[in-house]
Design brief:
disordered N terminus, 12 strands, alpha/beta, ten-stranded mixed beta sheet
Length: 337
Amino acid sequence: MKLPWFDFSSWSIPRTAWIQVEVTSRCHAACVYCPHTAYRDVWQDRMLSLAGFRRLWPALQKTRLVHLQGWGEPFLHPDFFSLAALARQAGCRVGTTTNGMLLDDEKLRQLVGSGIDFIAFSLAGVGENHDRARPGTSFRKILECIQNLNRLKAAARRATPQIHIAYLLLKSGLPDLEKLPRILPGLGVRQVVISTLDFVPSRELAGERLLSADRPAYEDLQARLAQVAAAAGSLGVTVHYHLTPPGAPALLCPEHPHQALYVAADGAVSPCVFTNLPVSGVTYMGRDGEQPYQPLVFGNLLEQELGAIWRRKAYAHFRRTFFTGRLATPCRQCLRL
């Protein structure tokens, strides 16, 4: 693969912990909680070109991890494995998140041979509860896909990709939480990341958000998550989750925008995936109720090199807000903080 050449000094490129790249915003599923479903009438399908991704080459060499997934299903991109190969060639770790529905044996063989470090399968419940929350996907088929991946890894004597679970915990799915460790034996899962509904695209979905508004509710949920983590740990599976205590300072963003960034499929550079949805003229539920959604974009990779975008005065000021406490509007309203 021919690599691009850029006429600027390497010091101009930020050294990041990770870069999340939305290879496409297209998706064939219709998850009930997803902005793709809630905003389907105004949603823009985007696809990052291979040429556009190559413009990230200098930055790929200075990051530890590239995660190839945004608001769409990454395996809908016809050049997904070429994108992954370029990232691997840059020397960083490479991961992705998928609903698993497009991974037939042929794609799984490509996956095993690609050198991708890890793949996370999305779940939002166990069994039929998952299927109700994520129409267009199948809990049973996801488990079969994971088992097939393990079979092909064993046949090829490959340890990668490691298998992770990206588990969305909805309020209606809280009873399923204790069932999660029971599905793990035999799946070869190394890690589970449990998240809550951090972006609420409509009033109808506000009830699915697990808010720890008071100390007893927080401690109860914390205890339940710790119990699940302990049960999974006994199986050799690491569980990660982020739960903000009531009244905690809203300055510790788990997206780490001071050392990470998000590139959308149209090349737009933003602090995180929540600040760049391919929509306009919509509202969402923030900390202070219904809010107009406005993307936060500091430049476009297709028009300017990433180092220049990172050094822009407005972008540098945004990163400083997490140390001064004067957060930008999207961050003040963010449920993830």
